[in-house]
Amino acid sequence: MLGKAKIKQIKSLEYKKFRDELGLFVAEGEKLTGEILQSNLEIDSLFCLSGSILPNHNAIAEIISENEMKRISFLKTPSVAFVTVKIPNKKIDFKQINSSLNIVLDNIQDPGNLGTIIRLCDWFGIRNIICSHKTADCFSPKAVQATMGAICRVNVFYVELNDFFNDVDKNTAVYGTFLEGENIYKAKLLPQGLIIMGNEGKGISPEAAKYVTQKLCIPCFSENEIKPESINVSAATAIVCSEFKRRTFL
Hints:
Helix content is about 35%, strand content about 20%. It has ten helices and ten strands.
């Protein structure tokens, strides 16, 4: 049976302050929990309803009632499995950064967008995401759910972007998406480098833009008289990653 203190601790993980203090984040759902159990992430606590089918793991699952699951869940419809996980402590491998394609997120605010971008990076084989400190927390419940398990396989780092770019090899290509940029489908693209994606409303900040060595634009194909001003940042990330990878593998 879950005690009041444990329930209070779990519910506090909705907030970054307590995630940082406790070094924990939560994940829900049979699929997502199963992926975490099969990953290298360290489990703190595992809860499930009777009859749940989870992968074999050395973590001992505590069987709880549907009512208890409702009390700790962050979902509108609670699932059958819930896990608290230790936040990994990773360091940036600049050798890997300089020799691969990576995403840089400049003040992305929506945790759903962030989680989707992490999932996209997993799909396109991009292992590292560099985030400004003002970017949403990838370990928030909403962001973790949106990753659909990709949080297990993609490295996410929070840095001062100025410090990060000063440590990157000076010959590394830095791409950024701008309305006045070069058509991405015609531009010369390298298989390695950094792709900066900007804030949902303001785009790439002047502080990050100064590091861009090549501006790119996703052209609008709308034939309407009034053309849309922009597209969602996660959708834009999908288009950009797809075009870079298409050049590499096709």
